[in-house]
Amino acid sequence: MTWRRTMEDLFSGSARDALAAAAPLAVRMRPRTLDEVVGQDDVLGPGTFLRRAIETDALTSIILYGPPGCGKTSLARVIASTTHAHFAEISAVTSGVKEVRALIEEARDRLGMSGQRTIVFIDEIHRFNKTQQDALLHAVEDRLIVLIGATTENPFFEVAAPLISRSRVIVMRALSDEAIRTIVRAALADAERGYGGSVELEPEAEDRIVRVASGDARAALTALELAASIAPADASGRRRVVAEHVAEVTQTRHLRYDKTGDEHYDLASAFIKSMRGSDPDAAVYYLARMIASGEDPKFIARRMLIFASEDVGMADSHALLVAHAAVKAAEFVGLPECRINLAHAAIYLALAPKSNACYRAIDEALAEVERGAAAEVPEHLRDRHRPGADEYPEYVYPHDRPEEAKSQTYLPAPLTGRRFYVPESLEDTASGGGQDPA
Mind listing the pLDDT tens digit for each residue in 103-135? Predict the structure, then answer.
C-alpha cells in the first residue's frame, strides 16, 4: 500500500511538473506571493484592508472587478497558496447550480467536522444567471463559504444586488506601462519560470509590447512568448527579439478595439463631451465608432442614462426617459437594430437644453452629510406610528392646507435655509436654452 501511494505521488508530481513546463509564459509567471503582485498597490499595498485580511487569513467575501490581465485570477491563486482554509475553484462558464450546491454541502460538512473554512473562487461570476447567483446567497451570508468572485463587467450591473451587499467589491485597475515593463523584465530574468537571460529584448521591442498590451499583463507576456518563438537563436542558443518580431505577432491586436485600453476611454469621453457640447453630428460619429469596434451597447446606453441626469437634468426631464428607453433597447433588442435606438437617444441628448443642477445638488448634499453631524429629523416630520408620537408638533398636510404649509420647514434645524438645488439660468450653457424650472 505504501509502495503504491509512493508511486502515485511520484506520478502525480511528474505530471504536475510536465504541465507546469508546458504552460504558457503568462501562466508560469503568475505571482506566487503578495509581494510578487505588480501594479495594484491601491488595493494590495501595505496597510490596505485586503492585504491585512489575506495576511491574517481573515478574508471575507469579495468581488474582484477589473479589466482582463490586471491580476484577478493571479490574486485568487496567491490567496489559495497562503490561506489555511480549503480552496475550491470553479468557472461560471462551465459550472451551474448543481456544482455550486455540491460545493456548499462540502463546505458545510468540512466546517462541521473539522472547523475548516472554505474559500470558493468563481471566475467570470457575471456569467452566472440570477438562479445560479441566488444559490450562493445563504452560504455567503451564513459564511459557510468565503466567496471570491472575479469579473471584467461592472458588478453593480452584472452581479445580483443581494450578492453584492454580502460582499466587498475590490476595484482593480489596468496595469500601468511601468508595471507591464516590470512584469516583462521579470519574465526575461526568471530562470525557473521565464527565460533566465536566454532571450534579449531590444528597447524598441519592449516599447511595442507595452504599447499593444494596454495594461494587460497576459497580453504582454503572450506577445513576448510569441516574439521569442520566432526570433532566431545564435550559436549559444540566445535569442534577440527586435521590434519587427513583436510587430509580426501582434498585427491583429492593433486592429482590435481594446475595451480596457486608451481608445475605449477616449471614444467614450469624446462621445459624452460631444453631447454635452450639443453637437449631434459628433455624438453620432463617436457612437458609430464604438458600435463598429464591438463595444457593448449596454455600456453606451448606461453612459447616456447617467448623462441624462448629470448634464441635461431639470432642463429637460424627458431626457431621462429617453435614455432609460435606450438602456432597455440595448438589453432586449440588441445589435444591430438597437443602433437606431442608441442614435435616437444620443441625438436627443445632444440637442436637449443642459443643466447640471441635479448633479451639483446631490453632491452638495452628500458633502454636507459627510462633514456634518447627523442632524435629527424635525419632530413634525417623524413617523407617527410609535409610542409618544401624539406629543409631536402638528404636521400640516399641504394638500388640505396649502397656505399654512408654506411656512412649514423640512430641513433639520441646523440646516434651515441651506440650499442644495439651485436652479440655474441656461443662457450661459452650450444649449443657450431657457430657464431651469424651480
Answer: 999 999 999 999 999 999 999 898 888 888 888
Extract the C-alpha cell encoding 234.
545564435
Q: Does 83 share its domain with 124?
A: yes
User: Rounded CA gap, 432 and 303, in Å?
Assistant: 23
Q: Which residue has the cell 510536465?
A: 18
- Residue 343 to residue 85: CA distance in whole angstroms: 51
Give the residue ranges of the chain where pLDDT is below 50.
1, 3, 5, 7, 11, 252-257, 425-438
Q: Is-contact 262 223, C-beta < 8 A?
A: no
Domain match, 68 and 139 both: yes
pLDDT of residue 296: 87
Residue 308 CA to residue 323 CA, distance in Å, equals 7
Distance CA 43, CA 69 (A): 16
> In a 10 Å sphere around its CB, with 0-12 CB exposed, 13-18 middle and 19+ buried, how is residue 350 labelled?
buried
Span 361-395, pLDDT tens digits: 999 998 888 887 678 888 888 888 777 777 888 88
Q: At what angle do helices 280-292 and 297-307 cross, to 10 degrees?
A: 150
Asked if 74 and 30 touch (Cβ cutoff 8 Å), the reply is yes
Nearest to 347 by CA among 266, 284, 419, 290: 284
Q: Quick one: 226 and 290 in the same domain?
A: no
Question: CA-CA distance, 1 to 131, in Å (whole number)?
Answer: 45
User: Quick one: DSSP state of residue 381?
Assistant: G
pLDDT value at residue 117: 92
CATH number at residue 270: 1.20.272.10
45 and 166 belong to one structural domain = yes
Other Cβ atoms within 10 Å of 351 Cβ, number: 15
**How far apart are the C-alpha atoms of 53 and 381, rounded to whole Å?**
43
**What is the phi/psi pair of residue 14, to 5°?**
-65, -40
CATH of the domain at 146: 3.40.50.300
Domain extent at residue 208: 177-255
